[in-house]
Amino acid sequence: MQNLLDFDATSLTDWFAAQGEKPFRARQVLRWIHRFGVTDFEAMTDVAKSLRAKLATSACVQPPVPVRDNTSTDGTRKWLLDVGNNNAVETVFIPEATRGTLCISSQAGCALDCAFCSTGKQGFNRNLSAAEIIGQLWLANRMLGASPDGDRIVSNVVMMGMGEPLANFENVVSALNLMLDDNAYGLSRRRVTVSTSGIVPAMDRLRDACPVALAVSLHAPNDALRDELVPINKKYPLKELMAACQRYLERAPRDFVTFEYVMLDGVNDSLEHAHQLVALTRDVPCKFNLIPFNPFPNSGFGRSPAQQIRRFSQVLMDAGIVTTTRKTRGDDVDAACGQLAGQVVDKTRRTSKRTIPVTEVRS
Ligand code: SAH
Ligand code: SF4
Q1: Among 162-166, 229-233, 327-331, which stretch is predicted with the lowest mean pLDDT?
Q2: Model confidence over 63-106: pLDDT tens digits?
Q3: Residue from 133, 245, 260 whose mutation best tests the ligand 1 pocket (most atoms within 8 A of CB)
Q4: Top-confidence residue, 363 or 349
Q5: What confidence score (pLDDT) does residue 147 get?
Q6: CA distance linking residue 109 with residue 121, whole number of Å
Q7: Same domain for 130 and 270?
Q8: Are residues 95 and 26 in the same domain?
Q9: Is 191 a residue whose pLDDT tops 90?
Q10: Cβ-based burial of 73 (10 A; exposed 0-12, middle 13-18, buried ≥19)
Q11: Could you identify the atom of ligand 1 that is nearest to the CA of residue 161?
């Protein structure tokens, strides 16, 4: 059975063409699936009866299955999705006054092993399929009661859940294509953000294949510290990463990159670090999003005090860089960075991470 959620417009058109079906049939079916949320081919009333019958025997529309559904007191809603083989990923919906943001996962686990990340600590299980990625948006729309013609409940998508999206390139691009497709979700490129730890060649590929808004997980202002916190930095060091950001901006729908920066107490949060960041990013139009560290057991890290985050932020702002600090939302449902999945399916293969000695990173 072919799961039609795996197809974007181009691949569905090709699949139909191979069976002698016309391109407009693909558009019709896409609309039924993604706009109207229909999974039963019989209900696709403007599709020829013969095609409906054929689809019923060769295809299905199979979204991921939610095994938990929690709503925080602040309205943040979080689904835990069973993706088989004892693997689970999470999707988080964050309602705000003027927008609704869905945070989507791209992999079960992650191979990149950033020091402060609980997803990374689980190790890598597998890539999510295109169906499992776009299925998170499909499902959120159903669960939130979206109507095909009403206001969009999910107005923004960020690929900031579990996994490194650019390490699952083809499937992520397929899902992005559907997010942007007018026959599917019709989101603007500016409202879809891919967050990457900095896989430089894949950033160039994304720019060429499907340029959407870009967030880069920086987390350190120099190579010595970033090598420790974000190990992929050893392969693609900061100079290359900054150059890749500049290349990306040539085609990006927004004229800045968002740098994410997790605030780790005594590790990367000194004012000297902030000044280094200003120098590092001098030639890259950017905004900063400071993320207070979300603690998890045995992480070996602590969250920077609010006052230190304010001071750090002020240094960036004094240099003319727009800087926001992420609100810690959904704390009561652990709606942050791999925590819930970590509790349900404990795949920790390693014992607790060593703490990076503060003296070492400060010298
Ligand atoms: N793999 C991608 C996207 C997913 S993580 C990436 O690394 O960019 C989304 C953001 O949350 C990243 O900036 C990531 O570094 C950050 N993050 C991971 N663990 C965190 C934690 N425990 N506390 C705060 N932020 C965390
Ligand atoms: Fe992977 Fe991103 Fe976590 Fe790093 S921060 S381990 S890239 S999910």
Answers
A1: 327-331
A2: 999 999 999 888 999 999 999 888 899 999 999 999 999 999 99
A3: 260
A4: 349
A5: 81
A6: 8
A7: yes
A8: no
A9: yes
A10: exposed
A11: 4
Task: Quote the pTM value.
Answer: 0.93
Q: Which of 43, 60, 77 is the last residue of a domain?
A: 60
What tokens appear for 341 in the block? 């999945």
Ligand 1 geometric centre to CA of 117 (Å): 6
Q: For 222, phi and psi rounded to 5 degrees?
A: -145, 160
Choose one of 195, 241, 288, 294 to mutate for the ligand 1 pocket test, by most ligand atoms within 8 angstroms of C-beta.
195
261 within 8 A of 219, measured Cβ to Cβ? yes
Question: What's the token pair of residue 27?
Answer: 């558009």
Q: Supply the residue whose CA is at minimum distance from atom 19 of ligand 1.
A: 117
Judge if the beta carbon of residue 164 lies within 6 A of ligand 2: yes
Same domain, 21 and 138: no
Instruction: Tally Cβ neighbours within 10 Å of residue 45.
Output: 9
Q: Which of 114, 210, 286, 337 is catalytic?
A: 337
Q: Which ligand is nearest to the CA of 116?
A: 1
Question: Could you read off the pLDDT of 339-349 as tens digits, one per residue?
Answer: 556 555 544 44
Domain that holds residue 28: 2-60
How far is 254 from 195, CA to CA, in rounded Å? 14
Rounded Cα distance between 192 and 186, Å, is 11
- Determine the distance separating the centroid of ligand 2 and the alpha carbon of 24, expressed in angstroms: 40
> 90 catalytic, yes or no?
yes
The residue contributing the CA closest to ligand 2 atom 8 is: 163
Q: For residues 55 and 73, state if they share a domain.
A: no
Give per-residue pLDDT as tens, 149-177: 777 899 999 999 999 999 999 999 999 99
What CATH number is attached to the domain comprising 323?
A: 3.20.20.70
Distance 319 CA to ligand 2 centre (A): 28
